[in-house]
Every structure is written in C-alpha cells, then in structure tokens.
Specification:
With 252 residues, the chain is α/β, with parallel strands linked by helices. The chain has helices at residues 3-11, 77-90, 107-111, 133-143, 163-169, 200-210, 226-234; strands at 17-19, 41-42, 58-62, 65-69, 95-99, 120-126, 149-154, 173-177, 180-185, 188-195, 217-219, 239-242. The strands form 2 sheets. It has an 8-stranded parallel sheet. A 4-stranded antiparallel sheet has the order 3-4-10-9, with no helix packed on it.
Length: 252
C-alpha cells in the first residue's frame, strides 16, 4: 500500500477529491460539475450562533485569480441541523462538517450534537487567521469527540513544526485553505481570501514541505485542473479540495 492509499484509509475516504468549505453550500447540489468521484462533501462553515454576512462583501479580480470577502455567514448550528441533518444521512459519501468556533469553550457545544449523526464522517475545524500554535492546541484539545478532526489553516500561515504537536493533541490531519491577501479597490485597501490558478505554486511548495510528516495533509487551493490535483497528490497530499473551480466548467 503506497503513502496516499494509507492516508486515504486513515481518513476513511474512497476518493481523494472533495469540495472546499463554502463552495457548494450545506448539502451537495444536483449538478456540481465534478470531474472525479468525490470522497466526501464538506459543508459551509457552521458557527454556534447565526452569523450575518459582511456589510461590504466584495469580489475583486487580480491577474491569476480573485479576492473574495464575505464575512463567513452561517445559519448557526441548530438551524443547520434542523435543515440539513436528514439530508446528510442520505448522501452517498461521508459529510465533513466545517465548524467555525469563536472560542475554544464553544467546541463541546458544537461537537456533541454531531457525535451520533448518521454519515457525518469528520469535523473540519476552521480557525481564525494569525493564530498561535498554543491557541491551536487549545482548540484541538477542546474539540475532543469521536469523529476524526481536521484542522483548517491558511496555507500561508502553517508552520511545518506544528504538525507533530497538533497530532499529539488529537488532530487527525490538516486542511490547507486559501491564503488571505489585500488589494486596493478605489481609494481603500480591502482584505479577503485569494482564489485562482496563481495560488497553485505556493500550495504545491507547502505540500512538499509538510509531506515529510506522517500526518494527512489536504491541499485546498489553486486547483484549476485535474492535472493540478494529481500533482499535489503525487507530492504527498492525502486529498485535495476544490474551491472556485466548482463555480465554472471543469478545465481538465
């Protein structure tokens, strides 16, 4: 069994392809333009209480991609479970619920309702930018639970030496999410997440750097073709997550 097969087995995935959180909603659409069989479906971010979108939502293009700022709106946990828990149980692939805690103390309230839900295969933990390793470990330990725990961190912020202590604290693996950046729009500077093919070389470099550790790493950005995904898998990624490419025709 090769490295990638071992990692997929640890994650209980039949395929290394999946969507990134925020790009297909809270349950899979009837038509998503997937070129490959998907190993799991990742939900939109779910916070404990409902969150409104940012007042100044923006999409700004730059050469090689675009910057998106939404404020990560959320239905809130109880609303999301009422609307989608039954649907999740009928999806033919595992559901990974992406949680957005505001503080480590919220995690037991977020995790406990998911423990007995049918077909929830893992929890993805979305953490704020600029977070220290000490705080990351506090979040991981607070999560506990029986579900596999994937920690979602910006690809431009994660440090190689973080992986062993994160695993020791209880993380199953790491999801490398889109980096954050800044653009000038009119007379002001705006911040947001960066998407598009321009992200791919950076993602590949980080995956190669983290592949030395025996920890599942999921690459979640810059993938705009099947070849991009295969390159990341060959470089050591356990799986790949598709983001903005799902909003256009697949460019294989």
């Amino acid at each position: 069994m090769n490295h990638q097969s071992k990692m997929l087995e640890r994650l209980e995935l039949a395929s290394p392809w999946m969507n990134a959180s925020g790009f297909l909603g809270y349950s899979p659409p009837a038509q998503a333009g997937w070129a490959k069989p998907m190993g799991a479906f990742v939900t939109n971010a779910i916070s404990l209480l409902p969150r409104k979108p940012a007042l100044l939502r923006q999409v700004n293009a730059f050469p090689g991609g675009f910057m998106l700022h939404t404020g990560l709106p959320s239905l809130g946990l109880q609303n999301a479970l009422r609307q989608y828990a039954e649907r999740w149980s009928k999806i033919p692939i595992p559901v990974w619920v992406h949680l957005l805690p505001q503080a480590a103390e919220e995690l037991p309230q977020l995790i406990e309702p998911l423990e007995d839900l049918e077909n929830v295969g893992a929890v993805e933990l979305g953490l704020p930018p600029g977070i220290s390793l000490k705080t990351i470990l506090e979040f991981i330990r607070a999560a506990g639970g029986e579900k596999p725990l994937m920690v979602c961190l910006c690809v431009d912020e994660i440090q190689s030496e973080w992986l062993p202590p994160m695993e020791d604290a209880g993380a199953t693996g790491v999801v490398l999410s889109a980096p954050r950046g800044m653009l000038k729009t009119g007379n002001r500077l705006s911040r947001g997440r960066l998407y598009g093919p321009a992200i791919f070389p950076y993602m590949l470099n980080v995956v190669c750097r983290l592949a030395q550790f025996d920890v599942p790493v999921i690459a979640g950005g810059g993938i705009y073709s099947e070849a991009d995904g295969e390159t990341l898998l060959e470089a050591g990624a356990a799986a790949v997550q598709l983001d903005a490419v799902l909003w256009r025709n697949w460019d294989a």
